[in-house]
Write a structure and sequence with these properties.
The protein is mainly α and 177 residues long. 68% of the residues lie in helices and 0% in strands. 12% of the residues are buried.
Length: 177
């Protein structure tokens, strides 16, 4: 997706540059052919790509922008997979009690790479949902579940201190009135 995003960004920038030059240069009294315009837009696009690359490397060197490791990218991809493919929406996650998703994540992390058929005592769900898949994959799933727990906590944080699962019925009743 990053490659596609970059390609679209470059094409849009090229198109904007071409149209802007064709519109603005004649207003300034500069007469150029379409071929010259095309060539100049291409040169400016290459300069823009080089500038972007150099600034990205500078920001990384200054620790202004840090690249994500392959593991972090895998965790983010797993979190989106859980939401988009498995259908575990934020509403679904909000239905769990505090710590449930975190315990599931901890079980995957603590027992990563285990091929034992025994379900860990930390596992909050039934046996059929416990499916270890190898050391790294289990770590990725565990961290993604921990992120889901953190997101659930942030969404349900409230100044009253009342548990979110108790507030939802109150909010539903208030909307009906």
């Amino acid at each position: 997706m990053s490659l596609l995003e970059s390609a679209i960004n470059i094409l849009v920038g090229f198109g904007i540059s071409l149209v802007a030059q064709m519109t603005l240069l004649p207003m300034l009294g500069v007469a150029v052919t379409f071929h010259q315009n095309l060539l100049f837009a291409l040169i400016m696009t290459v300069i823009s790509i080089v500038r972007s690359y150099c600034l990205r490397r500078l920001f990384e060197a200054l620790h202004i922008r840090r690249p994500l490791s392959a593991f972090m990218q895998a965790v983010i991809a797993e979190r989106f997979r859980q939401i988009e493919r498995e259908g575990w929406s934020t509403e679904h996650d909000d239905g769990y009690d505090r710590g449930t998703l975190g315990r599931a994540g901890a079980a995957f992390i603590l027992h990563a790479g285990t091929e034992s058929p025994t379900v860990p005592h930390e596992w909050p769900w039934t046996r059929e949902w416990w499916r270890p898949a190898g050391y790294r994959r289990d770590l990725v799933r565990g961290v993604a579940l921990a992120i889901a727990e953190g997101e659930r906590f942030d969404r349900n944080r409230n100044p009253t201190g009342m548990p979110a699962r108790l507030m939802r019925p109150l909010a539903a009743r208030e909307q009906q009135q």
